[in-house]
Amino acid sequence: MSDTQNAAEQRIPVTVLTGFLGSGKTTLLNKLLQRPELSDTAVIINEFGEIGLDHLLVEKSNDEGMVTLNSGCLCCTVRGDLVRTMSELFLKRSKGEVTPFKRMVVETTGLADPAPILHTLMTDPLLASRYRLDGVVTTVDGVNGASTLDNHEEAVKQA
């Protein structure tokens, strides 16, 4: 195995969870976090609006590994916050100030275009040295999905 492959495997995998408003992102996240094999997962939840609620809906055993970004849509106004938050979590993990985590999930707001988030994860030198994009999971409402895709450009970008 090459040094490059080994370095890539040591970086923390990040999954971006996206989908339009009401499509089931938080429900899916709750189901996943109940699984014992995902107990060592850090979660960043981006909420849009003055009063964020999603973090209250996520059942987590402790808040050490969960961060809520309320300052705006992750896709444009808080990309700097994402870099800062992920860097701070990595540093706290290294210092033993938070429960060690082996993976991270970033749940976007239902209005986010995930492309800038993905771009940030892959091109920011600090993040790219510590984290690697593991995948993108997009939820689509089984009943209203087609209508949502027809009427909301953001939903199309997410899917």
Find the structural class using helix and strand composition: alpha/beta
The name of the CATH topology is Rossmann fold
Percent range of helical residues: 40-55%
For the largest beta sheet, what order do the strands appear in spatially? 3-2-4-1-5
CATH architecture: 3-Layer(aba) Sandwich
Largest sheet: 5 strands, parallel
Please give the number of β-strands: 5
Task: Provide the CATH superfamily.
Answer: P-loop containing nucleotide triphosphate hydrolases
Q: How much of the polypeptide forms β-strand, as a percent range?
A: 15-25%
Give start-end ranges of low-pLDDT stretches.
Answer: 49-64, 69-77
Mean pLDDT metric: 79
Output the radius of gyration.
16 Å
| Secondary structure tally, helices | 8
User: N- to C-terminal separation?
Assistant: 35 Å
Shape: globular
**Mind telling me the CATH class?**
Alpha Beta
**What order do the SSEs take from the amino end to the carboxyl end, as H and E?**
HEHEHEHEHHEHH
Describe this structure in words.
- This protein is α/β, with parallel strands linked by helices and 159 residues long.
- The protein has a single domain, classed as P-loop containing nucleotide triphosphate hydrolases (Rossmann fold, 3-Layer(aba) Sandwich), CATH 3.40.50.
- 42% of the residues lie in helices and 20% in strands.
- It contains eight helices and five strands, in the order αβαβαβαβααβαα.
- A five-stranded parallel β-sheet has the order 3-2-4-1-5, with helices on both faces.
- The longest helix has 17 residues.
- The protein is globular.
- About 16% of the residues have low confidence.
